[in-house]
Amino acid sequence: MRQEGALPIGVLASGRGTNLQAIIDAIRAGRLKASIRVVVSNNPEAYALERARNWGIPVEVIPDKGFSSREDYDREVVKVLKDRGVELVVLAGFMRILSPYFVRSFPMRIMNIHPALLPSFPGLKVQKKAIDYGVKFSGCTVHFVDEGVDTGPIIIQAVVPVYDDDTEETLAERILREEHRIYPQAIQLFAEGRLVVEGRRVLVKDYPRAEERSMVNPPVTIDGE
Ligand code: GRF
User: Fold this and answer.
1) What is the average pLDDT across 57-80?
2) Domain boundary residue, one of 64, 87, 106
3) Is 114 a catalytic residue?
4) Global pTM value
5) Ligand 1 proximal residues by C-beta, below 6 Å
């Protein structure tokens, strides 16, 4: 998937790859000026690989087994990405923690999407954690990857309500719909050179402000006027 003047990206995925698909769709629709140089997976069974192959995107399967350390594995992945000329690494359900070596190889050039409003609920199974905690809103976060887990500077977030009768699945689905909107957007902002990292903050240059609008859950029904 190549385009003139497009940002060369590499996508890392371990599973079903719906975010990869959203990125492919955004590129095809001309909304995202990127070209996917390679899809890398640690899981030979990942459906994400199938999706890539369907669109003629090169894939590299690097199974986890047989490496003596996390860094050894990551050296292999970094080499693939550099050889393909990747400028932005996009984690899309990649179920491995990156070593400092990997992170330093692409400083502020690795993005991740997380299905919660960071810094709340980092880690795994976070839709269940949000329900169990009793929060009234959750959402998703695209952030740059630093050497911690889900701790890097936040680029964009989307909020969804959590309902009393939500299950892990219904909440995950509601969040996923937003993931598919904000991930291509975050990559496009990067491609346009609009993201300026200042410490923990990511400022978006020359861009409209979000509308000042509150969401309340459960809704307020006793408002005057
Ligand atoms: C998404 O929920 C994403 O937020 C998390 O892993 C999941 C990947 O889903 N990091 P998919 O493989 O893109 O469908």
Assistant:
1) 97
2) 106
3) yes
4) 0.96
5) 13, 15-19, 92-93, 113-115, 176, 179
